[in-house]
Amino acid sequence: MSKYKATALGHSPNDGAKGAGTRRLKALIFDVDGTLADTESTHRAAFNQAFSAEGLSWHWDEATYTRLLDISGGKERILHYWHARGDFPHDISGSGVRDTVQRIHDAKTAVYEYAVHSGAVGLRPGVLRLLQEAKAAGLRLAIATTTSPVNIAALLRTAIGPDWVYQFAAIGDASTAPLKKPHPQVYLQMLERLALPAGDCLAFEDSSNGLHAAHAAGLATVITPTRYTASHDFRGCLRLLPDLATVTLAELEDWHGAQPAQPHVQFPAH
Predict the structure, then answer these.
(1) pTM of the model
(2) Residue 189: which region, alpha, beta or left (left: phi > 0; alpha: psi -120 to 50)?
(3) Which strand (E) or helix (H) includes residue 151?
């Protein structure tokens, strides 16, 4: 990740200084997997353990999993991979396939939750400090992810504490937003819950799917990639950073105030 320098794609290095204060930043909206925490290696290991428990010979190495991250959602990745293998079963009703995928995903979730509680995953550099700084300054915090609620709770209960949920004004996840990123459903839901226009908020993502989802909702977006998303196309992001270790709230406010409003793209609800 050291190859990433703080860059503003499509903006000059002095944009922050010339536009600071033109709009007030009121909320930060965070993706979870890859953004709040570098979780993907732990997810991958949990998938492989679940496959083994199901008696399958499947194994997702890092290269395979990197490609599969183009598919948002764990169950969707399993289905996509199964189809791609060429041995997808003929199931007229579809219930057998759905039951198998659900069983694999439930087993994977249990393995992941245990790993997180055991300390296998922590927040990425600078995340906790920035959350605390924003909260102290009166900004509202939200989560916009399409991972499962149990995965979010496992991570943030361990990283922040048992009252983690009270730190966030709104939380959107797979239970509220069935349309996965790059569809903007979860971001549109969070803007509605926050009762704020997109121009008052800033999104944080690590993937191109996340960037597309945030942009389609009209949100300026800060990108902090992981090694799994390092090759993604992040053109149009507000800033591309290795992590949030040295980022201050004042800098975010300057960057946010300097950038032009993103166009809001209307998507159907379904």
Answers:
(1) 0.85
(2) alpha
(3) helix 149-159
Summarised one tens digit per residue, pLDDT across range 162-207 is: 999 999 999 999 999 999 999 999 999 999 999 999 999 999 999 9
Angle, CA of 230, 232 and 233, to the nearest 5°: 130
- Residue 133: burial class (beta carbons within 10 Å; 0-12, 13-18, 19+): middle
Which pair of tokens denotes residue 238?
């507000």
**Coil vs helix vs strand at 204:** strand
Sequential DSSP letters for 45-73: HHHHHHHHHTT------HHHHHHHTTS-S
Place of tokens 């839901």: 189
Q: For residue 51, what are its two tokens?
A: 């496959």
Measured over the CA atoms of residue 35, residue 36, residue 37 and residue 41, the dihedral's sign is negative
Q: How many CB atoms lie within 10 A of CB 124?
A: 20
Q: At what angle do helices 40-53 and 74-85 cross, to 10 degrees?
A: 60
Q: CA-to-CA distance for 72 and 74, rounded, in angstroms?
A: 7
Q: What is the 8-class DSSP label of residue 143?
A: E
Confidence at residue 166, expressed as pLDDT on a 0 to 100 scale: 96
As given in the structure block, the two tokens for residue 113 are 């939750």
CA dihedral 88→89→95→101, nearest 10 degrees, is -40
Q: Which residue has the tokens 């944080």?
A: 204
Report the pLDDT averaged over residues 37-57: 96
- List active site positions: 31, 33
At residue 23 the predicted structure's pLDDT band, cuts being 50, 70 and 90, is low
Please say if the pLDDT value at position 17 is more than 90: no
